[in-house]
Amino acid sequence: MKKINLVILFSGNGKNMENIIFKLHKKQFQILGHCVEICVRAALSNKKNAYGLKRLENLNTQYYEKIDSIILEHANFANREEFDRQLANVLEKYKPDLVVLAGFMRILSPFFVNQFQIINIHPSLLPKYKGAHAIKDSFESKDREVGVSVHWVDEGLDSGRIILQASRLRQEDEDFEFFENQIHKIEYDLYPQAIIKAIEEGLKS
Ligand code: GAR
């Protein structure tokens, strides 16, 4: 059996991280004729008060072999480059086949991006509404079709090649809370599927 190691990076609520662990961790999949077991080796937050750390602690009570929980605060580093170098050092020991960004609200420097295979989830139909306020920007747009993208991470902002997208048609009377919840529902369905597709692309190359 082939093992695929994931490390997840997050900054806050951590619901996507939790959902990925719940749906994929220690589970086996047939991918391109290989039996693959996915293992989330660690999840790392750049913020010490991230709620996702509590989610991870709760999840870990279910597992004999714990998923490492790591806090690496960017605020303790002089600049982006120094933080990213330390981040790379920490991640290297897990030999991740895939680094999964799940609400990790940091731009990564080119050397980091070139060192790992990295994917990201973004709550809009890219290339529309890049940046940190995608849900609000989609909501305020006149777009009828809205959705979520999972993409490879390159040196640009939300600019790498798309792995999967999913969308829905919104109604005229939706308020922001409903709209946002619908986007999150799409995310929880889409990200696990996109991770499998990314692993498939990795096995092909
Ligand atoms: C998610 O909606 C994710 O798409 C978004 O942050 C949220 C994290 O929620 N990411 C971005 O906007 C990246 N540009 P979570 O912490 O509950 O998973």
Overall geometric form: globular
Helix content: 25-40%
Average pLDDT reading: 96
The CATH homologous superfamily name equals Formyl transferase, N-terminal domain
CATH class: Alpha Beta
**Structural class by sheet pairing and helices:** alpha/beta
Give a short synopsis of this structure.
Strands 1, 2, 3, 4, 5, 6, 7 and 8 form an 8-stranded mixed β-sheet that branches.
Q: What do these coordinates show?
A:
Helix content is 37%, strand content 27%. It is globular, with a radius of gyration of 17 Å. By secondary structure, the protein is α/β, with parallel strands linked by helices. It has helices at residues 15-24, 51-60, 80-92, 110-115, 134-140, 176-204; strands spanning 2-10, 27-31, 34-45, 68-71, 98-101, 118-122, 145-152, 162-169. Strands 1, 2, 3, 4, 5, 6, 7 and 8 form an eight-stranded mixed β-sheet that branches. Helix 1 (15-24) packs parallel to helix 2 and helix 1 packs across helix 6. The chain has a single domain, classed as 3-Layer(aba) Sandwich (Rossmann fold), CATH 3.40.50. Glycinamide ribonucleotide is lined by residues 10, 12-16, 52, 102-103, 121-123, 132, 134, 187. Glycinamide ribonucleotide (GAR) binds at residues 10, 12-16, 52, 102-103, 121-123, 132, 134, 187.
